Amino acid sequence: MEWDPKEADRGDVVDRRGAGGGSGVGTGGMGDLGGVLGDILGGGGGLGGGLGGGGASRGGSKAKKGGGIFGVLLMVAAMFVLPKILGSKGADVITSGMNLPQFPSAESADALPDEGRGSDAALPRSEDPDPELTDFANVIITDTNNVWAEQFQTSGKRYDRTKLVLYTGRTSTGCGEGLSQMGPFYCPADNQVYVDLGFFEELATRFGAAGDFAQAYVIAHEVGHHVQNVLGISEQVQRIEQQDPDQATGPESLSVRLELQADCLAGVWAHSRYERGQSDPAKRLDDGDIDEALDAASGVGDDAIQKSTTGSVNPEGFTHGTSAQRKRWFTAGYDSGSSDDCDTFNAPRL
Ligand SMILES: [Zn+2]
Predict the structure, then answer these.
(1) Cα-atom radius of gyration of the chain, to the nearest Å?
(2) Is 186 within 8 Å of 8 (Cβ atoms)?
């Protein structure tokens, strides 16, 4: 992808990497951030958490088509008639929703230094291991925010920009403590995307997705969760999950539908970038960019991750969708460029 660091002029990045916390920590594991945080990585293999599901098909067929992400709200709202199973709003969402698997290669989070959690000390450029990657991440968060601000404006809705928080190892978030082992994630409580840029190394080596557009897809996916949050979709899905915790995962679950929608929204952004690149060489996509995004979508599919971690595939443990589904929904958004085509909640086929 062609880009210029000057594109990033909106102050959409919060750099906490200079705070001294946990440098050199690998991202050897992956977490399921449950109903609180929208993460890029699927899991399965016994990972807990995830958003509620199973009820999606009940309301889906009756909902009007064509509402896209701005209409899906109605359909999700209709599902509030589901019997309330949980009396309380749930305990500490972080401890109930997050269930980190143990990976031999991952350092224990408790062993990490405490200093610097959550403080915003920017890393001096001279100490940045990859200043170009930092610039690129800045460009992507700025550009995705720009695109969604415009789309919301067109729909007569207000969009509040999200920020990309760069950190190393661990950091405080409005959703509890963020660890790089979780992979990139979005916290709806503070409206911010959290990325340890070290993940992109793992994206290339462990998940088989190298290249700048693979990285762009990851950030755009998390910004997709922000879009869902601004529209109130995430909150409604989370409430349903609290009412119906037994249906937190599975191939048709609301969690999977929410994640696939975020993939589709990433595709909508990619379409916009492609379109603008047609008339502006400084923003042109390179050959292979879309393939890089598709490789990333495929690499973080539930089935791919389950297979690599447990050796088998268990659809009941799906939280993010299969590799094929993630590619399909990214492509749906990329092909049309319209969020109207991202209504995974009413889609008869995921
Ligand atoms: Zn996600």
Answers:
(1) 19
(2) no
Q: Which residues surround ligand 1, an ion (CB under 5 A)?
A: 38, 259, 262
Per the structure, the count of domains in the chain is 1
Look at residue 112 and tell me if it is in a domain.
yes
How far apart are the CA of 281 and the centre of ligand 1, in A? 31
Rounded Cα–Cα distance for residues 206 and 20 (Å): 26
Calculate how far, in angstroms, residue 315's C-alpha sits from the geometric centre of ligand 1.
17
**Residue range 143-166, pLDDT digits in tens:** 999 999 999 999 899 999 999 999
Question: 349 lies in a domain?
Answer: no
Report the percent of the chain where pLDDT is more than 70.
72
In a domain, 348, yes or no: no
Domain span including residue 71: 5-342
- Within a domain: residue 347? no
- What's the gap in Å between 294 CA and the centre of ligand 1? 15
pLDDT (tens digit, 9 = 90+) per residue, 175-184?
999 999 999 9
* Closest to 144 (Cα-Cα) out of 256, 17, 20, 1: 1
Among 58-72, 192-206, 234-248, 263-277, whose mean pLDDT is lowest?
Answer: 58-72
CA of 221 from ligand 1 middle (Å) equals 6
In the reported structure, the alpha carbon of residue 146 is separated from the centroid of ligand 1 by a whole-number distance in angstroms of 20
Gap between the Cα atoms of 4 and 86, Å rounded:
50
- The average pLDDT across 190-219 equals 96
